[in-house]
Specification:
Blueprint: H1 2-13, H2 16-30, E1 39-42, E2 45-48, H3 59-68, H4 72-88, H5 91-97, H6 102-135, H7 141-144, H8 149-172, H9 175-200, H10 206-211, H11 215-222, H12 231-239, H13 252-275
């Protein structure tokens, strides 16, 4: 496995565009600290991001993993380009000629996306830990290391998303078309969700029972938006008569759904490579 991973990392690191995108991704993650400088007035309310407790433990794990996941598109481009380059430069065929099996080829790609997801989660962990110790009002270990399930949810979310991107890169071959397909699929899921919510099941939660199994929606459900958990947002909601009943937990079944999709994407990637005339 170490040999397979080493081969993939060399391919990525020798590609200038991939190197820039990967570096940009991790630089942007560190910019989460800039949120602490946000200050503005909302009517009678003065909003100071740091003072509102966004970096308080354990809330910071929820907040940072949610917003850090917005930047995953940078690594998605790297993964899709990684596969497109395999076809463009003929390295896929060369790897197979050199003795690498198709199963090993897919394994090497899966190890790469897993490494990306793991390093991202570890990076967010340390960034959040540092910001928390600087700004948090609570530093007791029992509080600091509670709600760590958001990091697990973040890792699984990235793993599923990157596996989907890997599958699209193998399926479509061209990075631009693969990313375009990703965008179109996001729109398709949005239409399905809208139709089920507002047309088929307008007055019940039945639609969610179906839409939670859609690939991108299942990944999105892993970490629910954290902003409405803030005290000031709850206060505003109370004043305007809005009651917040949202469930912010990372559920085991949400993780399971994404892991199943991950397995499906990897299997389909292997199936395509196995059957395709390279």
């Amino acid at each position: 496995m170490k040999r397979l991973l080493s081969i993939e990392l060399q391919k990525i690191w020798k590609n200038k565009a991939s190197k820039v995108l990967t570096s940009t991704y991790f630089i942007l993650l560190t910019f989460l600290s800039l949120i602490a400088t946000i200050k503005f007035d909302l009517g009678p309310f003065h909003i100071d991001a740091a003072e509102q407790g966004i970096f308080n433990f354990p809330y910071i794990w929820h907040f940072n993993t949610y917003f850090a996941s917005w930047f995953k598109i940078f690594l998605a481009v790297v993964i899709v380009s990684m596969m497109a380059n395999e076809y463009s430069y003929g390295t896929l065929k060369q790897n197979l000629i050199d003795g690498m099996s198709k199963k090993e080829f897919i394994l090497s790609k899966f190890l790469t996306v897993t490494l990306f997801a793991a390093i991202s989660a570890i990076f967010v962990f340390f960034v959040s830990l540092i910001l928390g110790f600087i700004y948090s009002s609570f530093n007791e270990p029992s509080i600091v290391f509670s709600e760590m399930e958001y990091l697990l949810g973040y890792f699984v979310k990235l793993l599923g998303f990157f596996s989907f991107c890997l599958f699209l890169g193998i399926l479509v071959k061209k990075s631009a078309f693969a990313l375009g397909f990703l965008f179109v699929w996001n729109i398709i899921e949005g239409i399905i969700i809208g139709v089920l919510n507002f047309r088929v099941f307008p007055k019940s939660d039945t639609a969610r029972n179906f839409t939670q199994f859609l690939p991108l929606e299942s990944m999105s459900n892993l970490i629910v938006e954290p902003v409405s958990r803030l005290a000031i947002i709850k206060s505003i909601g109370t004043q305007v008569g809005i009651q917040n009943l949202k469930d912010y937990s990372v559920h085991w079944y949400s993780i399971l759904i994404v892991l199943v999709w991950t397995a499906i994407f990897i299997f389909l990637s292997y199936y395509i490579i196995k059957k395709r005339d390279l």
